[in-house]
Design brief:
single chain; 210 residues; mainly alpha; 81% helix; centromere; cell division; kinetochore; Centromere_Mis12; Protein MIS12 homolog
Length: 210
């Protein structure tokens, strides 16, 4: 069987010519085997009708197999010639014939070097596209982070506004004075907490002694 890929023919027919010839060969071969079985059956029936015939079915089978090998050998030779003719004269597209879908190549011909240059340009464009996509994703991630930061800043501003309102309610309008007032109260609270902790420790030690 031909080893030529015949890619252009496969594009036109929708199948490779070699595949077509292989299927034809298998079909003929199957028909040959079936025909030999039919011939063998007819011979066995004829022999059964002959009185005193000493030819056994196994001998008939051996003869049938020999004849089958003889036929197959001649069939392979004939099929080889038929395949060569069909692949060259029937299933072959001449090199000067251009398929309709390939007319664009005739209108816009490109050399091998030009095609390689186009491929390189396409690869560069793909790389740029991937880089821009990655940059866009990074910007979106940064925007999400900025939204989170803005939310936290808004919370802080609300806290300061609430703090300022509390200070005004207590008669302290200046923010610096309010902050100093809160700092002093915080120190007082820390001192009270420290005093409570020390007293708690002394009470625990007293209870342990009792």
């Amino acid at each position: 069987m031909s080893v030529d890929p015949m890619a252009y023919e496969a594009q036109f027919f929708g199948f490779t010519p070699q595949t077509c010839m292989l299927r034809v060969y298998i079909a003929f071969q199957d028909y040959l085997f079936e025909m030999m079985l039919v011939v063998e059956g007819v011979i066995l029936k004829k022999l059964d009708a002959i009185p005193g015939c000493q030819i056994s079915p196994s001998q008939i089978r051996k003869c049938t197999e020999k004849f089958l090998l003889f036929m197959k050998d001649h069939f392979d030779k004939l099929f080889g010639r038929m395949e060569e003719v069909l692949l060259q004269l029937v299933l072959n597209i001449p090199r000067n014939v251009l398929l309709p879908e390939d007319k664009v190549h005739e209108q816009y011909p490109y050399s091998k070097e030009e095609f390689q240059a186009l491929q390189q340009e396409l690869q560069q464009l793909q790389q740029q596209c991937r880089a821009e996509t990655a940059a866009g994703e990074a910007l979106r991630a940064e925007l999400e982070e900025q939204k989170v930061v803005m939310g936290e800043l808004e919370k802080i501003l609300q806290w300061f506004n609430g703090l300022e309102n509390i200070c005004r309610e207590h008669g302290t309008g200046n923010f610096k004075e309010s902050f100093a007032f809160l700092t002093q109260n915080s120190k007082k609270l820390q001192d009270v907490l420290k005093d409570v902790v020390e007293k708690s420790k002394k009470m625990e030690q007293h209870e342990q002694l009792l």
